[in-house]
Amino acid sequence: MKRILRIQVNGRWREDAVTDSTLLIDYLREQLQLTGTKQGCDGGECGACTVLVDGRPRLSCCTFAASVEGRRVETIESQSTNGRLSPLQQAFHEKLGAQCGFCTPGMIMAAEGLLRRNPQPSEAEIREALGGNLCRCTGYVKIIESVQAAATAQGEPA
User: Fold this and answer.
1) What SS3 class is residue 119?
2) Pair 106, 38 in one domain
3) Could you give the number of structural domains in the chain?
4) Segment 11-39, tens digit of pLDDT
5) Residues near 37 by Cβ (< 8 Å), separated by ≥ 6?
6) At residue 128, does pLDDT exceed 80?
7) Model-wide pTM > 0.85
């Protein structure tokens, strides 16, 4: 049986038919064609599928789409504006925080959630916020440096 899901995705309200068992990642990738959210472990272990729900990081592979009814969901696609990278995306590019790129969308979304709550996090706070996101390429040093660079850039006058 399907239900109508009313949800805001990347700033736009939508109404779509979903089953009660539709996972948020499947809704985003298959129905909305927002494929930036990556499907990794399918069990909430890797963080590749991280999105923001009402500004907080959430694993979309463990979240039923129906459970975010009426809420605001942001994917990696929401981070750039008019083809311009967000400050966090730019920092990942400049500081080489992305290697193969598979974990990058989830890392950026988890970091974005952190920076919204805490614009000037310590290294320990960054490590804790990204603790649920796995990377097989970088050893995390460049990822942490990327988040630190974005935090520094946010604190500078425009």
Assistant:
1) coil
2) no
3) 2
4) 999 999 999 999 999 999 999 999 999 99
5) 25, 28, 29, 48, 49, 50, 51, 60, 75, 76, 105, 106
6) yes
7) yes
